Structures are given as C-alpha cells and as structure tokens.
C-alpha cells in the first residue's frame, strides 16, 4: 500500500506494435483502475533486450508505447507511466532476488522453454532469469495486485514464492502480490489461427489487428479472417473463428452473445465480418487521432517521461534501500 491506496503494477514490452488483443484484454481495463489504485504502468524495455533489438527501433517503439498508453486513455497525472530502464532499482533488486531464487524454479518456467525454441541462436542468461527481473518489477512498488493473463500466472506465482522466502528470513520487507481479479478483458484470438492468442509478434500480419492499422486495413483483415463453411453466426466451441469474432464484436459494442446472434441471424459471414471490422475501426479512430496529436507534442511527452521517472524512482528506491539494508549492504553516506 502506498500513500493510503493499494498499489498495482503492470507493463508491456517495447517490442512490436500493440494489437487489438492488448487493448481489449488489458489496456482498456487499466483506464478504470486509476481512482481505486496507485497504478504503475511500465514500458518494459529492459526485458525486451533478452531478444536482439535494433537500438534505434527499440527507442522509437518504447516512446510510441508510452504515448499509446496515454492515447488509449491512461491519465499520465494519475498513473505513473515510465520506462523500466529509467529506474535502475529494477536491475539492482533483481540481483538480490536472484540470490533467493532456486534453479529448479527457473527450470520449470514454460515461457523460457518456448522462447528458447524460438530464439535457439540466442539462449542467454537474461532470457533464463527473466522471471526474477519481473519479480523485482512487481515487488519494488509493494504491489498489492497485478493484472495477469493466463500466460503470466506462472510469473506471479514465482514472484510470490520469492517474496515469501525473503520475508521469512528478514521480516515483512515485500508485499506479497495477489492476482487482480476484475472485469474480465476480452481474450482476442488470432484471425488466422483462432485457437491461438492474437500476438504482436505473429509473422502473419493478417492474423493481428494493430492499433495503428488504418480502417481499410482493419476491414480487409477481418474479411480474410478464418471461419468455417456453414455460414451461421453462432457462438460455439466448435466454431472458434466465429466465436472469436463474436467475442470481439461484443467487447467493442457492449452487446451480449444472444443479441449478436439475433442481429446477424439472417446474415452470412461476409456481412458479419464487415460489421466487426467497421466497429473495431470506429473504436480505434479516436485513439489513433489522439496518438497522432500527442506524438507531435514532444515537450509534453518529455515532461511525462521525466516526471514519472522521478516518481517511480522515489518509490522504487525506498523498497530497494530496505532490501539492501536487510541483506547487509553498507549504508550510503549522504
């Protein structure tokens, strides 16, 4: 708890371009949390370099992501939106926590195994110890809650284990975080492989809707979306493509499944895909306009970066100094 409010931490990697899945599944819902929690939203650029990045492109994407957070509705005065790399306490605490993390725990992390297959030519130590840096991210801000998707549950579990292990030795240094259970964000699947989650790293660009896609591109991608052969707009587990489109349309319009099935009862897939595409394009239009406006205001974005880095450093350093003292590091002479 910070300043009388429970704290919440989350972040997204500064790689690729955010998708409709990132927005409907997480970012859209973050906007509703700012009054209830002290929120820290990180542009996760330190994690990003576990995979080789073009330096200029990484800087460009990190700034674009921070700007997009604001364009999507996050209030930069109420929420602390910052670059991970601007807060050195992330790396410093991660080293301490590495010494309280067991090899067996890291060996069980499924995301490392998946990424090691994808990046077999660069299986580095950072990729292996990624969960420890993520634990530091969360614990630095005494986070009470962390919004997690199904693919991040394992990371929160190891964070809790590390925090409890440290606390059992040194007392209540870290808040042990709980998963945030709020309004369920839409789980958006690939438009080309609807049994897989939509991903910003998908090599097939037709599989994902990117937040900066123009309306024509969005509609074309939905028209190409994989469905099935019976042409009936019906929500069913054996119709994953149509089920995904119904989920997306419902998340954008606020309509429930029964209403959607009734609305398109006499329509074929072509009309339905067009309607989904138009609704998504309409939802993203003001976000894109706001992003373009913010991108031109260099002084404003620079000010947010500076102010929020100072705020994040203030809270992170308080936790770091406490952990450093507990493990026996000499106090700094001021």
Question: Would you give an account of this structure?
Answer:
The chain has 334 residues and is mainly alpha-helical. It contains 13 helices and five strands. The chain folds into two domains: 7-180 and 298-327, 3-Layer(aba) Sandwich (Rossmann fold), CATH 3.40.50.620; 205-293, Tyrosyl-Transfer RNA Synthetase. A three-stranded parallel sheet has the order 1-2-3. It has a two-stranded parallel ribbon with strand order 4-5. The longest helix is centred in the C-terminal third of the chain and has 30 residues, at 298-327.
Question: How is the secondary structure organized here?
Answer:
Elements lengths: L6 E7 L6 H11 L7 E7 H4 L6 H17 L8 E4 L5 H10 L4 H5 L2 H9 L6 H16 L4 E2 L6 H18 L7 E2 L35 H9 L16 H14 L3 H7 L5 H28 L1 H30 L7
Order of helices and strands: EHEHHEHHHHEHEHHHHH
Using the alpha-carbon principal axes, give the shape.
globular
What is the CATH C level class of the largest domain, in words?
Alpha Beta
- Low-confidence parts: none
Mean pLDDT: 91
| Spatial sequence of strands, sheet with the most strands | 1-2-3
Keywords, please?
334 residues; 5 strands; two-stranded parallel ribbon; Rossmann fold; 53% helix; 3-stranded parallel sheet; Tyrosyl-Transfer RNA Synthetase; mainly alpha; 2 domains
In short:
The protein has 13 helices and five strands. It is mainly α. It has a three-stranded parallel β-sheet. The protein has a two-stranded parallel sheet with strand order 4-5.
């Amino acid at each position: 708890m910070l300043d009388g409010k429970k704290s919440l931490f989350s972040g997204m990697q500064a790689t690729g371009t955010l998708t409709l899945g990132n927005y409907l599944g997480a970012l859209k819902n973050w906007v509703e949390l700012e009054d209830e929690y002290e929120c820290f939203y990180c542009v996760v650029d330190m994690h990003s370099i576990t995979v080789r990045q073009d330096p200029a492109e990484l800087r460009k994407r990190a700034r674009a992501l921070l700007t997009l957070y604001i364009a999507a509705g996050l209030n930069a005065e109420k929420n602390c939106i910052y670059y991970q790399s601007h807060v050195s306490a992330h790396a410093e605490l991660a080293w301490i926590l590495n010494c309280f993390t067991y090899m067996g725990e890291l060996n069980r992390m499924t995301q490392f195994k998946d990424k090691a297959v994808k990046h077999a030519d660069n299986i580095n130590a950072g990729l292996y110890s990624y969960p420890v840096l993520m634990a530091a991210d969360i614990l630095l801000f005494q986070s009470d809650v962390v919004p997690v998707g199904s693919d991040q549950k394992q990371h929160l579990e190891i964070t809790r284990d590390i925090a409890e292990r440290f606390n059992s030795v040194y007392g209540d240094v870290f808040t042990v975080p709980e998963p945030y259970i709020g309004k369920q964000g839409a789980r958006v699947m690939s438009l080309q492989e609807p049994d897989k989650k939509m991903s910003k790293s998908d090599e097939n660009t037709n599989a994902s809707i990117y937040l900066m896609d123009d309306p024509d591109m969005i509609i074309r991608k939905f028209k190409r979306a994989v469905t099935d052969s019976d042409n009936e707009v019906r929500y069913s587990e054996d119709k994953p493509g149509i089920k995904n489109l119904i989920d997306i349309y419902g998340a954008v319009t606020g309509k429930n499944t029964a209403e959607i099935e009734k609305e398109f009862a006499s329509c074929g897939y072509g009309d339905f895909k067009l309607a989904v595409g138009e609704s998504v394009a309409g939802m993203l239009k003001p976000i894109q306009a706001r992003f373009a406006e913010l991108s031109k205001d260099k002084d404003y974005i620079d000010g947010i970066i500076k102010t929020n880095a100072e705020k994040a450093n203030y809270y992170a350093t308080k936790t770091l100094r406490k952990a450093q003292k507990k493990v026996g590091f000499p106090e700094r002479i001021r």
